[in-house]
# Entry
Amino acid sequence: QVQLVESGGGLVQPGGSLRLSCAASGSIFSIYALGWYRQARGKQRELVATKTNGGRINYADSVKGRFTISRDNAKNTVYLQMNNLRPEDTAVYYCNAQGSIAAMHTFGSWGQGTQVTVSS
# Structure
């Protein structure tokens, strides 16, 4: 249906930067929002940032001013630019797609996740 593939994770020092990418394929016309979630070890998965087809963006309070979400519609790709990274940003980051195939019929798709580790 909708497939998501993340890339760009890795190990960085505090204050460093990373850029995550997520390419969507399949029933892309059914998608109305793309975004990023993260889950730290032993913690609840949380929303990081989302962007709808109409351009509305939501950020978690913890990343406002540091992270930027963007989309390339021609490439069906969503990006997450992460600056001034902190150790508490360490988590597995998951790409997420939300969509609808008909009125009142919604779905969500997840990527496989990419590890981001912030450490000295």
In short: The mean pLDDT is 95. The chain has no helices and eleven strands.
